[in-house]
Prior knowledge:
By secondary structure, this protein is mainly alpha-helical. The chain has one helix at residues 2-54. It is built from one helix and no strands. The N and C termini lie far apart (84 Å).
Amino acid sequence: EKDAMEDDPGVDEDLGQESIKIDSDAVRKKFLEKSNEIEKKQSKEKEEAYKKEATPF
C-alpha cells in the first residue's frame, strides 16, 4: 500500500507541471497582448502631446 501511495503523488506532480506550463504560456500571451496595447496607447498619447506643444494655438 505504501508504494502505491508514493507513486500517486509523482503522477499528480507531473500533471501539475504540465498544466502550469500551459497556464504560463497563456498568461505570457495575455501579458504580451496587454503590454502591446499599453505601448500603443502611450505612443499615441505622446504623439498627441507633441502636437499640442508644437501648435501654439
